[in-house]
Amino acid sequence: MASNKVTINDVGPRDGLQNQPKVLNLEQRLSLILALEAAGVPEIEVGAFVSPKAVPAMAGTADLFAMLPKGSARYSALIPNMKGFELALEANVPLTSLVIAASNTMNEKNIRMTTQQSVNVSRDVLSLAKSKRANVQAYVATAWACPFEGKIAPDEVYRVTEQLIEAGASGIVIADTIGAANPAQVQSLMGGLVSRFDSDILSCHFHDTRAMGLANTYAAIEAGIRKFDASIAGLGGCPFAPGASGNVATEDVVMMLEQMGFDTGINIPLLLKASNVAIALTGTATGGKAKSWMEKYYNN
Amino acid sequence: MASNKVTINDVGPRDGLQNQPKVLNLEQRLSLILALEAAGVPEIEVGAFVSPKAVPAMAGTADLFAMLPKGSARYSALIPNMKGFELALEANVPLTSLVIAASNTMNEKNIRMTTQQSVNVSRDVLSLAKSKRANVQAYVATAWACPFEGKIAPDEVYRVTEQLIEAGASGIVIADTIGAANPAQVQSLMGGLVSRFDSDILSCHFHDTRAMGLANTYAAIEAGIRKFDASIAGLGGCPFAPGASGNVATEDVVMMLEQMGFDTGINIPLLLKASNVAIALTGTATGGKAKSWMEKYYNN
């Protein structure tokens, strides 16, 4: 039987901050991470080892890792390639994340490689990771739909997932990069994955573009998934995917899961404080869709 | 196997307009109903036969029924008691709706009767309806939770539902009056009801107070429910239930269901026009949670 515990990975400090207009300095980024950690968020995506020219919002991620306390949260960083992985190793990053789009077109537009070429590069990174005893997880992006190709065949997601697990990925995050999945599709694909692979290695990443973020989270829970990405205050999107906007808000996901009787280990009043930090720092975060209700309910 | 067709009952002209500050005149109320009908919404709650002093927004409902075209939509009205039913009969209303709260305290606060007394009054109405060959459906309100009593025992909902079906109700609407249900509870209660009664007679009414309206709709779909209340532009709430606000928006529900491959028979671009009518008339309607995306996607 699936567990009552759910693990939340807050991607706000990376996926969120990378996709909003204001570039924050390292102290501001640190303050958001510390607010999340204070609320008991168990995993936090801290930054990305990408070109500071291409993505100014993620500049100085190595320095940011050096500023982090030895806290209770598990910190991770996105790496686009071997170069990024080497930088992450130097910065002693405990967990790094590769991204492979299930859609060939999306992968080519994003990093100028086919999906298979990208899997091959990931194999090299995972092979080096093994020798260094480093944890590397992999995102399967545009897992349900791609803005260029439309609907993605589940078999393609199974195939990429299998290759990445065989190559040694410590986790696989199935991502609805453009927020196009509906809950029937989520239950179907995640059910298919859970029947093929260990559910403990799987996680979901949803956007709330079509207001289906919570419905999709519930569908994944029904399929047996117990790990989710979410973004504090609903920060985020994807600058390379037309139509992508707004990761599902951590506040909304945690509220729903806790009300369903799941244990996220997160303190909701402190999470609302972290949400206010995100809103104050960016000026663009929404705070999620249930925040006004949550503030009345949990702060009394 | 459950059907691919889903029936939407738009309660905006009644549940919606009754619970927002501005009182509309009959022409304005008619314009909203006609916009919904033009979009192909198959069922519309037109008004209520209640005291115009207590509920000014619903004054003149008999006159409004006289103004309605012989259209394709099925029109209904809320009736609080026998007096309301008699007025509805005089106005040739094709379908009326009784409301019985599963919570005793809520029922007493709302209409000064216990739940059982309210079921007994409903029996009298349903008995007269039988002799007049009139269709009367019944709402089981606060079916999951009540602001005064907290969680409601499913057995209480089964008991009230059974009594109302035996008394001749043409349909039973299970209502999360204060928007407190989570999808696990929805799937559990609706699953229990579907195993006891004909699913065709059952319907769900959700509020989006905690942003779980779509997740709850999906959970009910999973349980086999194929009929839903929703309110155009997210208009609504319940003035007698503290903390209740915002019915789930018809736009959001129709979008999710259509994307899941269900057939609602509703034209989405025309539904967005009806949404704009609701927003223009009231000044308070939100338009639902996916509207900006829907306008880009469906109006191109």
UniProtKB/TrEMBL annotation, chains A, B:
Keywords: Lyase, Metal-binding. Residues 6-272 form the Pyruvate carboxyltransferase domain. CDD domains: DRE_TIM_HMGL (cd07938). This is Hydroxymethylglutaryl-CoA lyase, mitochondrial. The lineage of its organism: Bacteria, Pseudomonadati, Pseudomonadota, Gammaproteobacteria, Alteromonadales. It comes from the Bacteria. One of its GO terms (biological process) is ketone body biosynthetic process. Belongs to the HMG-CoA lyase family. InterPro entries: Aldolase_TIM, HMGL, PYR_CT. It comes from Paraglaciecola polaris LMG 21857.
